[in-house]
Amino acid sequence: MTALDITILEQHMELLRPPFPARDAPEAAAYMLLGASDIGADLWSRQPRLRLVSHRVIDIPAADHISASPVHVTWSTVGFMRLLGDAMIAGKVPAIVHTHPGSYAFFSDQDDRNEQELARTAHLKGVRGLVSIVLGGDGSVSARIWTAANTYIVADTVQIVGGRFIRHAAEATESAEAEHLDRQRRLFGAGFNKTLRSLRVCVVGCGGTGSPVALLLARLGVGYIYLIDNDTLAETNLNRVHGSHRPDVGMAKVEILKREIETMGVGCHVITSKAWVKSTEVRDGLKSADFIFGCTDDNSGRTFINRLAYFYGIPLIDVGLRMVAANERQINDLNGRVTTALPGRPCLICSGVVNAARAHEEDLERTRPEEFQKRKEEAYVIGGGDPAPAVVTFTTEMATVAVNEMIAAITGFHGSEGMISNRVRRWHSRDDRFLAHRKRDGCPVCNSDWSRGAGDVVPFLDMVS
């Protein structure tokens, strides 16, 4: 059976639910379009999974409202027919949303009867299903998708994704009261460990920053980790790849980390891909992730996961370092950076993290090395230089900062806005800078209604290879 989970972007949730609803307020309703992410085989269960992400909220016109009270809401289905038409044109999944201001989120017998008729209409129109979402006044959320007039699938989880990450599970996950997690439970509560145990986290790049990120996630109690890196361990990596030993030289970095995590015995399930992040074989794993840590040192990989974060509503926590050795004219220039990218915030390109020209050159070097070398000789591309300096204490410190951003998203310890958008740590100046960036006008990634929550499109991520 196909599993289902639904992501509602924070900016869409703000349109759907008033911040302080009165318990005696009348129920309200709205429509949505959701982008679909079809996962052929879940990495861990090996079963098909459908992940839906909010793409657009559509108000029900006042003229369509019939009546509402604290325990019911009814409206004309004229707008519903338009919704189905919009869904067909956009290739999206239609959804109806209503609130229970004075209660928790549940589906009533009346909901079952009404939705059966709407689902039958949707089926006849040829859309792939009809989603129904209920928002409780206590903050709870329930959701399901009608795949036929008499058949529905209840969402395993519904997550509200923005600066904060708030997960609602249909059923309790496996016990997270392990003794080794007791000290963090005392700080953040049992719900923190429960959420961590349910998370699927992808780490892209398993070198100086990715290796400590992966090991920290496992120690925290993250239930499922997916590691992606195409490299093997070189002798020069021994100074900063956590878990590595001299006999591991030549071994895939992802396998070294898998071995170390499994040796911990903390119940973390690890799957690896020794592959380039743009390989088709890693797409299902990336699309399944609740968080992605970008620990790659290239522009091309960053460009790819940057787009993926916006199309699928997956928070991206990107880590980078820029270290320049001192010379006779200047002191050391030592900088570490953690940037969070997700719908509603500037992307890595608008934040100045990614160099699009260098990304193109890196793709050329990887896919057409002869052409790359020719252009390099003709000075059309920059080409590779000496390896960048790297020191384990600095790479590990920024890995910790990055993982703390995920903790801030789950717990809110930074405040209601959750994750910090952009932090630059300047060790040479002994300070942190919090840089504000704006979305560029016309940016097709972060300033586009089309890409936000778009889900699966052809070509993948609307990128021509």
UniProtKB/TrEMBL annotation:
Every THIF-type NAD/FAD binding fold domain range: 182-433
Lineage: superkingdom: Bacteria
GO annotation terms (biological process): cyclic threonylcarbamoyladenosine biosynthetic process
Keywords noted in UniProt: Plasmid
Pfam assignment, any one: ThiF
GO molecular function, one term: ubiquitin-like modifier activating enzyme activity
Residue intervals of the JAB domain: 26-138
Keyword Transport: no
PANTHER family: TRNA THREONYLCARBAMOYLADENOSINE DEHYDRATASE
Name of protein: Uncharacterized protein
Organism encoding this protein: Sinorhizobium mexicanum
